[in-house]
Amino acid sequence: MTYLPDMEWRKAPGLQAILDALTVNEAAPFAVGGVVRDSLLGLEVRDVDLATPLEPATVMERIEQASLKAIPTGIDHGTITAVADGQNFEITTYRRDIATDGRRATVAFSDDWREDAERRDFTINALYADIRGGEIFDSVGGLEDLEARRIRFIGDAAQRIAEDHLRILRYFRFFARFAGSKPDADALAACGAAANSLKSLSRERIGSEFTLLLEADDPSLAIRLMVEKGIFAAFMPEITPDAAARIDRLISREKQFGWYRPFWSRYLSLLPPEREVIWTVGKRLRIWNRGLKMIMGCLPEGELTPNNIREFAFRRGIDRAQVAARVFADNSELADILSQLEGWDPPRFSFRGSDLIELGYAPGPDVGRMLEKIQQRWIDEDFPGDERLREIAAQLVREARSAST
């Protein structure tokens, strides 16, 4: 028999209040899914999801009778959000699917946790636990799969995918986060066979799931498998076969030089370095505009070298320069490029039009162009101090006067 470890989340006052409110004849709600899985793996628990045989209306009534807040977030599908001691708890009535169309399901409520488990996606997400007593209940082999670091669909993989096409992307996301080096053959075959069904999903759902995949510690093998199985064709046909090699190179660099803006850099590494492609795919995946503009700012216009990386950082920011280097720099120069940025704070260009006029330069539309020349010379000299900056300006003013006479 397997038990939950003694973790702080089990003792939270808000959770205890909910358990008291929903316990009937000594039968309390179970913790279910990620909270059980992550507790067994020793990972941080962020969300505590509960499952109960009580129907949603009864859950609402009992939560409110306990002077707690109840929100009918998905009441038609059996889900209530309870707020206790400032924390949200998602409480779902045991369910079974009546009909599905690959995007949404029609459900009926159940009083059997085993029936509820059968409709879930992966075995490691169908573990139930008695919170106070700690006993874990497993009817689908999830404990064995968790120990083996194996991601396996519950029952028939093709059927689980037919119920919800998003499970294809969820498979690779969970594989990236929890699995070892060997995918489940049945799962992989079913995902490949149904890849085209991803076209039926909303861009928001695909974009959200894809973002979570890229934020895994090391998604490189999952990405490689997705490329090999043609998973991207339905929603990112711009990805070419060499994308797997590019993400491998990036992950290797992240491990060598430290993690940095993983989503930005991984998104860039997967796609051809073309502004239109990166923008078009980002809009398709519903990447928020500000984030997409930041990503676009990481795309260099030419080769990155130790000699020009500081100019890139000055014009676009250290964050974007770091990402650009990790994604696009040549292996032979990457360490030197990063060393140019380490501990460097881009200075402010302090010379202004009024300073230029003080040097005798005539006011007018050419002032802006002259300032750009001064700034570029200053950059080319690796951002010297104000004294040298003024010398550069004076020299260029003299050259301009000589050229005009």
Molecular structure report:
The chain is α+β, with helices and mostly antiparallel strands and 405 residues long. It has three domains: 1-148, Beta Polymerase, domain 2, CATH 3.30.460; 149-235, Orthogonal Bundle (cca-adding enzyme, domain 2), CATH 1.10.3090; 353-404, no CATH class. The protein has helices spanning 13-22, 34-41, 56-65, 113-118, 142-147, 157-163, 167-178, 185-193, 203-214, 220-228, 243-257, 262-270, 275-284, 289-296, 309-316, 318-328, 331-341, 353-358, 366-380, 386-404, and strands at residues 30-32, 48-52, 69-74, 79-84, 87-93, 95-100, 105-109, 128-130, 136-137. A seven-stranded mixed β-sheet has the order 3-4-5-2-1-8-9. Strands 6-7 form a two-stranded antiparallel sheet. Helix 16 (318-328) runs antiparallel to helix 17 (331-341). The longest helix is centred in the C-terminal third of the chain and has 19 residues, at 386-404. It is elongated. The N and C termini lie far apart (95 Å). The model has no long low-confidence stretch (mean pLDDT 94).
**Order of strands across the biggest sheet?**
3-4-5-2-1-8-9
CATH class of the largest domain: Alpha Beta
Count the domains: 3
Overall geometry comes to: elongated
Annotation field: number of helices: 20
Q: What is the N-to-C succession of helices and strands?
A: HEHEHEEEEEHEEHHHHHHHHHHHHHHHH
CATH homologous superfamily classification of the largest domain = Beta Polymerase, domain 2
Mean pLDDT value: 94
Which band does the percent of strand residues land in? 5-15%
Q: Describe the main β-sheet briefly.
A: 7 strands, mixed
| CATH architecture annotation name of the largest domain | 2-Layer Sandwich
Q: List the quaternary state of the chains.
A: single chain
Number of strands: 9
- What is the gyration radius calculated from CA atoms? 28 Å
Which parts are unreliable, with pLDDT below 50 for 5 consecutive residues or more? Answer: none
Give helix % range. 40-55%
What structural class should be given to the helix and strand makeup? Answer: alpha+beta
Task: State the separation between the terminal residues, measured CA to CA.
Answer: 95 Å
CATH fold field value of the largest domain: Beta Polymerase, domain 2
